[in-house]
Structure formats: C-alpha cells, structure tokens
Amino acid sequence: MMIQLHNGGVVWQDGAVHPAPAGGEAARDKTMAYRILRAHNTGSGDGLLHLTFDSLISHDITYVGVIQTAKASVLKEFPVPYVLTNCHNSLCAVGGTINADDHAFGLSAAVKYGGDYVPANQAVIHQYARELLAGCGKMVLGSDSHTRYGALGTLGVGEGGGEIVKQLLRNTYDLAAPQVILVHVTGKPRHGVGPHDVAIALCGAVYKNGFVKNKVLEFVGDGIGGLSMDYRIGIDVMTTETACLTSIWETDSAVADYLALHGRAGDFAPLHPENGAYYDGLIELDLSAIEPMAALPFHPSEAVTLRELIADPGDVLREVEKRAAAQFGGKVQLHLTDKVKDGKLRVEQGVIAGCAGGLYDNIAAAAAILDGCDVGSGNFDFSVYPPSVPVELELVENGVTSRLLRAGAVCKPCFCGPCFGAGDVPANDALSIRHTTRNFPNREGSKPGDGQLSGVILMDARSIAATARNHGVLTSAADVDYDEPASAERRFDASVYDKRVYRGFGHPQPDAPLQYGPNIAEWPAIPALSDDLLLQVASVLRDEVTTTDELIPSGETSSYRSNPMKLAQFTLSRRDPDYVPRAKAAAALEALRAAGHAGEDDTLSAALKALGLTAEDTQRLHIGSVLFANKPGDGSAREQAASCQRVLGGSANICYEFATKRYRSNCVNWGILPFTLAAGDPFDGAPGDFIYVPRVREKLAAGNEVFPAVLLHGGETRDMTLYLKNTDAQERELLLRGCLINYYAAKNEERHG
C-alpha cells in the first residue's frame, strides 16, 4: 500500500516510531506543533488555546469584507503585518469597474490602517506568503483555506474573514487543543511522480474516513531530506483537502537555503520533534510506493492511480457519470465515457496553476517533458500560470518559458482563477486535467443549474505535460522518457516587489480616506438573538457533504463579495435555486411579525396556532430561515458561505456534523446558530416547515447544550432535539449579540460609554 494509517497513540523516539505508553498524551507538548502553539498562546487556563498570529494575509475577494467588518467594529490600525494581495479578481473582467474598485479600496485601506498591498498579477497569495512572511516557528492566519506553510516550519491556518477581524481588533483565535498526527515520510519518489501525486494519494487515504479532520499533521522522517522545497510545498498546500487544521514539517538545510535566498536567513530555525513526542495517530507515507495519481470529479479524495484510469477509462468514468447524475438529481448530465476512443481517454484541456501547481519545479519539469515536442493543433489547450513575478523572471531567464511557448503552451500571469472558476473555464461536457487544488462541481466555472457541466481531474504537472506531449491522450509521466530537471541555482529578485508593493505596516495614515466604488456596500444591521426562535426551513440538502462552493458559488459571483446583499442573491444558486426566495419569504414573515401584523399572513397564523403560541409569545420570538444539510462546509474558508445566509435572514444551520471547523466558525461569527442532530435522529423537515425553539437565548446564555424544539410538518407537530455542543463563552456571546460586528460595537460602547 502507498499509505498506511494507524489509529492510537505513538511516540517518536530516536528517529523511529514506537507504541505510546499509557497516559502518554502529556508528551504531545514535545511535538513541533505544540511548541509553536504554546509560544503563541495567550490563554489563561480555561482549557482552550487563545492564539495570536505573527502576520495576516488576504486576497481581493476577502479583504474588502474583512476591512468593512473591522471598520464597523471600530478598527483604528493594523496591529500586526497584514498583507492584501490581488490574485483572484485580478483579471478585472466581471461587472464593469467593480474588480478594480476593490483593488483601489484595498490600497486605500493599506494606506489608512498601515498594511502591505501587492498589486494585481504580482503574486498569488500563498506564494507571496512563502517568499516574504513564513519563517520557522511562526504562525500566519489567512482568509483563504489553503493557508499552509508547514514545509517552511510555519503553522499556517486558513479561516473565514471573521477570524482575521478578531486579530485586527487584538482579539485571539480560540480553539480546543488539537490532536496531532505523525506523518512518517520515507523513501524516494519514482520517475514521473510529482508532489500532486503524493498529495492526491494522501487525500484519498484520509479524507472520507475523517482520520485527520481538525487535527495537525506533523511531517517527519528521512524521506523529507530528499525532496526539494517546491516538492514539499506542493504536498503541504494540499493538506487543506484532508480537512486537517494545519501542518508542520521538520526543517533542514534546504529550508535554511530557501529563507536565505529570500533575504530572511534569520527566520530559519531547526525544527524537530523532541524525543518521546506523543502523537494521536500515524500515517506511514512511503514515497517510493506512490504512483502517478488522478483525483476524479468531484473531489480531491476521489483518488485512483493513473495506471488504472489509463487501462480502463470507460468503467472508471462511467462511475463518475453515475455519481454526477445522483448528485445533480438528473437535472444535468456529464458525458465523459464518449471521450474514450480506441481505448484511449482524450481530454480537452490541461492547466498548471496556483499555489499548488504553479511552482518553479513543476513548470520546469513540464518544460523538460515537452522540450522539442508540441501540444498539437487539435482541441487540446495547455496553459501555465507562474506563482509570482520573481518566479516568472527565473523561468524566463532560465529558458523554461521559451521551451513551453515553443511547444504551444500558453503562459499566463500570476492568477488563481483556474482554481475557482474565474479562468480557463472548459466547454460544456469537456474534461480538463489540472494541477490545481480543487475539482468540486462548478469550481472550474460550470453552472449545473443552467445545464452547464464539465469535469476536472486533478493530476500532477508532470503527467499533464506528458498528456500535452501526446496531444491530449491521457498519459502518465511514468511512461515518458525524460530527465527531471537538475536543481537550478535559484534566484529571487526582490526588486520587482520593491518597485510595486506598497509597504505601510507601522505607518498608518488615519486621515487618509478609503476609496469606495459603487459595488462596495456596508453590512446591513444584524439583529441580536431573540428570546425564542421560529425557524422556517429554506432548504434541505441530503448530499453526503455540502461544500462552501455550493453554499455560495465561486467564479464570477466572487466579484460581488464587496456587496453583501447583491452577493447573497447567489446563495445556493447552483445547488438549490429556490433557497433565496424561500429565505426572503421567511424574512417577510419576520417583518410582518415585527410590525405587529403576524395575523395578516395565513401561513404564519396557521403555524402559530398549530404551535400553540399566543400573541404574547409572538412578541418574544424572531422568525428566521434555517438550512439543513447532512455535513456542510467542506472546502473554501469563505465567510460568505455563512454571511450570505445571515443577511437574507438566516438564523441557524442544522446538520449532523460540520465538515470543517472554519465553516462552523464562520456561522458563529455571523450569528448563525450551529445546531446539530444526534446521529441516527432523522430530520423530517421539508422546505416551508417551521421549527420552534423556545427559550433559546436563556439556554444559550446558560451554556446549555440541549435545545428541545418542535417541528411543524404537514400541519402536525412533533418534538425534536437540537444540540449546541463545544461552544465556548466567547462564541456564546457572539451568538447572543447576533454577530461579530455587534459584539465589538458593544465592547466599544462599554469601554467608552
């Protein structure tokens, strides 16, 4: 097996793994992760970690909302380095001026509050952080889920914008002490195997079983030393797709050289677990056993070997078509098996891009494979995106770019678009192979609700280049005779940033105005939690997992993230188009109730009567919409997955479990009650039903975990039990206040009267 999992505690002793002694959990403090966490903890013995970060980073579809939220919460200046990059809406291609308006706002905010601003097309967010923020023993918080810098000895955490706001307002990132999983890395990669192959194999091994969910991955072992920094980084950034909290790697001379190259030799420190370090589980990762891999639509964990896919593409893709039909309820069909001709699978597009694919080593390997060949003049297109201008300069000066261009590749600017549906969108029913981070449905830009659907298979840059060399016939790099490029003497020309990046940290100009555009809007007023709650079901999603891309689509909708109400119109648009009108209908009922006219709506009057609620009871409650999903929130850190529900009047989510901590945190920060059901308890509600939760404010304030409720379905009432577990004191206060903005406004009023 390529990867083996072992439940139960182990210890790292003298460079080897041993069974853990009973009660050895205290030695978790000997891990690299815990030494860094403890160094950043400001906690006072309440059992939680209260963390402050060394620096923060956001891109241009998150920073406007972050700053608007912080400003509404009385932001004065950025207290720690905060970098605003422009790599998502940097094409400025959607909605007229609105993308560039956001960029102008970002620069004005950097000037006013003392931040750093990286103009469009200079660098993708995570490459800039690797080059200029990461350092051994540091912690970086980013409002993007792929904030992962573990290969550089940095704990990178990706969260929604609300957590960035807390840091900007000198608050802390709070969580229960996480478990740590040892990833024991041994062996050496085979010919044709790149970092994405390792990452896909890892995701396939641990995602569906939840083996590392919300835990820290700690990479150790003698296999690390044989990997280049780009190789390590390429594996590390994909740990987000395992659902882990963050990651950390041992550091060595390669890390020291990388930091020195980028002018930060002083940020190096050797990191290793101490003898006897305790881990809560073990992943044995033998690099020599990894084959070229493919992640089938529609998740990075749908891992198969390229060998299997190439040998029997029809049967493999037929199963993908069946999954697509089930997932989309027959509303749209995905046709992949017709791409198999004479037993060979032909694809229409190849893309190498972003924080995972667009690394120097990956692009150089692709050029080596294509050297002297061509991508053909058929319907196969091949695009390559470098991660930053300094890396792009290296590629040009070393002749890599010229070899790609001569082969027929298209070299494009530093841009994250192909990773979230804003660039290189394939044709309907097309099949794209990509070295990017995700292949969720519509993540590549298709719109299943409109009958548009394409498929993306994640692969490593090397096998994508091998396929390009074969004019679109799926080919494994293991089957191509090429020499992996020798490690070139790397260069980093910092002058390109010196000439273009605005560096304002420590020099705020409070009198400088913020520059607004017509699409940049303030947050609407959010109500505090009422005494009782009457929820109307706006959507019921029975999928095994609901991604944040389904909750609020990416792609062109990202351009509206600076306008809360306009963006909210896209909520669940590609999964349940009826959600928005239902949520608005529930909000209209609340408006009637608040005006004292609840009796004027027949549906509401009947519901109140069936629930036995008096006119006095009606005055104590608030009517809000509720979303049910089995397991919501996989994928992106985008806070808009929660805030869009909230501005439409959403008051709660009900699920069996949340897919990620970050989505649950987003719900809490926006005042959405994160209710769960007990495993095995059926959810019998349907859109339009009502759920009455009495004494919700009282119970929440008291720290109760059990919330008796009543479901009104088909005119009949039945009891149900909702749970609100593992909610700390600050989270409860946020929920009581109604949202993060209200919480900070109240704190400011308390301070200043």
Q: Report the principal-axis shape.
A: globular
Question: Residue share in helices?
Answer: 25-40%
Query: DSSP helix count?
Result: 26
Which strand order spans the largest sheet, edge to edge or round the barrel? Answer: 29-28-26-24-30-31-32
Total of domains: 3
Shape-level CATH architecture of the largest domain: Alpha-Beta Barrel
Q: How far apart are the first and last residues' alpha carbons, in Å?
A: 64 Å
Could you explain how this protein is built, in words?
The chain is of the alpha/beta class and 753 residues long. It has three domains: 3-48 and 177-289, 2-Layer Sandwich (Aconitase, domain 3), CATH 3.30.499.10; 306-479, Aconitase, domain 3 (2-Layer Sandwich), CATH 3.30.499; 532-752, Aconitase, domain 4 (Alpha-Beta Barrel), CATH 3.20.19.10. Helices cover 31% and strands 20% of the residues. The chain is built from 26 helices and 32 strands. The strands form eight sheets. A seven-stranded mixed beta sheet has the order 29-28-26-24-30-31-32. A six-stranded mixed beta sheet has the order 2-1-13-10-11-12. Helix 3 (98-113) links the parallel strand 5 (82-84) and strand 6. Helix 12 crosses helix 14 and helix 12 (360-370) runs parallel beside helix 15. The longest helix is centred in the N-terminal third of the chain and has 16 residues, at 98-113.
